[in-house]
Amino acid sequence: MFQSIFIKEWLKIKSFLLFSILTSIIILGYFAFKLNFEFSTIEPESMMWYRFVQLEQKPYFDLIFFYLIFGCLFALFQFLPELIQKRVKVTIHLPLNLVQIVFSHIFIGLVFIIFYYNFISLSILAICAHYYPEEIVQIIFKDTLAFSLISIIFYILVSALILEQNKKILFLKALILVLFLFVFVKEQFFINDFFILFTVLIFSPFILLDSFYSVKQQRLKIFYKVGFFIISFILLSSSFLNYKENYQKEFYKYYIFYSDILEEFVYQKNFGEHRFEYGIKDDRTFLQKEYESYLPFVYWRDLDIQKKLPVTINEKVFTKDEIKDSKLGFDYNYKLLKKQETELYPLFNPQTNEGMIKFPEEFFGIFKDGAKIYDFDNDHLKEDSKELNKKLQEVNFSYPVKNIWGKTTNIKPFDLGYLIIDNKNRLFNLKKENNNIQIKEIEYPKNIDIVYINIAENKQQNLSGYAIDRNSNFYLLTWDFEFIKLDLKEFDYKKMRLKFIADPVNYLIRYDDQKNYYAVIYSKNDYKKIKEINFKD
Q1: If phi over 0 gives left and psi between -120 and 50 gives alpha, with beta otherwise, what is residue 374?
Q2: Which of 71, 93, 314, 494 places its Cα 20 to 30 Å from the Cα of 12?
Q3: Transmembrane region positions (predicted)?
């Protein structure tokens, strides 16, 4: 039986398979040409690594649609003739086990599909291996594996749709297919994604088997229905999380500022559709122009155009330059907690005799077996890597690294390097300057567990950023990485957004979970809390 089915399937799809291979050679050739062109027209070439790792711009991502198109067309070539020529009814009425017949068709289809996807995936890996470090190539392998699994499931589900006879159930299965694509057509794949993929892959043949049974006006029994419900629930939940994380538009109900003129918090309430309310909580409301007049440090550019600067507040004069030079802002969003797929970072090397920081040729990473430095022309720089490992050893660095934070762009006035937490929760500052790598330990409160650090180099050279610990405590970082704790009531780093704003007089911190909005004002001189407020939506 199996041999007969194999010959029948081969005769149906051999021309399509040959055409697909020829088409893929053309597409892969274009991909190789385009990748070579991108690397040869950018300087330095390591910018392409930066795009891949930090910006998540993967040059091969669009090829996932080629995988999917092949899976869809393969299903059409395999099962549509069976349906049109009514061979399905003949097949299911043969004195043979229907389960064996269906799974034989799936197995034969998978043999051809896996062969084809292996050809595509290995070709992509071979092309990319000429341009990327091995740590990135490992990510490419993971992604092409995910592309293959997604497309195999897509092939099976499309086959089920082709054979399904009941329109209502056809709609449900089509919905499952749409949810599946919505969840898994994306740039990054993690362990839980592969768990869901393998779960759906194991169950999907039964969806196809159920479609075969529909030709006989029959259905699979209770275990299939329970499984279908579970898969539907998993995909619905994943779709909701995917929408919330990647597609839901952020909305701020309140914008809260502190007016040094009124010595009160003032707010702008957003009703949507460009409708706003301005006022002081539980006191009064006012027009937009009056609201702006109370915030000269926010609307100082308008005052400058209107020739109303300098401005005097509480008998102190503030000039345009003083206001402008005092402006500083940091942002936090819980989405920033997501780690990179691979721990590779640009190793900046500012020179004291040059005014601008160039984007570096070199990238570094600290892995379980030690640190590595790469550049495009020489790949793994063994001597430089040896030097970095030696310096890490001198400070008794403990592997593996827990986290690395730093600003990975050269659009900054200075480079403070990276802050690194080792396996023993010791904090180190790593940077390269004038061709010399420097590593030093940073003292910080030992009773805290740091979950996030933001480094934001700025011309003021007073604050370097902020840190957040696992108990949602917030710390400002001085230029020398001293931790200054600020009290933020009800702050939860796992679900809240935060914005830090500096002006000539105070520090303002706003944070919210889109339901509860908080604002706290601190003195710039001693970091003491002056006043706080909260709004509930």
Answers
A1: beta
A2: 93
A3: 16-33, 60-80, 101-132, 144-163, 170-189, 195-215, 222-243
Q: Across the chain, what does the average pLDDT equal?
A: 92
First to last CA, the chain: 67
Distance between CA 532 and CA 509 in Å, rounded?
9
Note whether 74 and 16 are within 8 A (CB).
yes
Tokens coding 155: 């092939």
Please, which contacts does 23-27 make with residues 24 or more away whose CB atoms are closer than 8 Å? 24/66, 24/116, 24/119, 24/120, 24/123, 27/63, 27/66
Q: CA nearest 462: which of 424, 507, 430, 520? A: 507
pLDDT tens digits for 303-330? 999 999 999 998 899 999 999 999 999 9
Half-sphere exposure of 57 (CA within 13 A, CB side): 8
pLDDT in tens, 170-206: 999 999 999 999 999 999 999 999 999 999 999 999 9
Residue 125 CB partners (closer than 8 Å, separation 6+): 137, 140, 141, 144
d(CA 531, CA 44): 49
Considering only CA atoms, which of 102, 56, 43 is closest in space to residue 340?
56
Contact indicator for 467, 450 with CB cutoff of 8 Å? yes
* Predicted TM-score (pTM) of this structure: 0.89
Residue 398 to residues 147, 402, 423, 425, 448, Cα–Cα distance (Å): 36, 10, 5, 9, 18
Q: How many residues does the chain have?
A: 537
Distance CA 525, CA 527 (A): 6
**Tokens for 455?**
């480094």
Task: Residue 419: name the closest of 383, 474, 466 by CA.
Answer: 466
Interatomic CA distance for residues 468 and 477, integer angstroms:
10
Distance CA 225, CA 153 (A): 19
Q: Name the residue among 274, 330, 306, 296 with its Cα closest to residue 507.
A: 330
Cis bond upstream, residue 310 (ω within 30): yes
* C-alpha to C-alpha distance for 340 and 188, rounded to whole angstroms: 10
Element (H, E) at 117: helix 98-128
**Which residue do the tokens 């949602």 mark?**
472
Indicate the DSSP class of residue 523: E
Rounded Cα distance, 501 and 484, in Å: 16
**CA gap 254, 268 in Å, rounded:** 6
CB atoms within 10 A of CB 388: 22
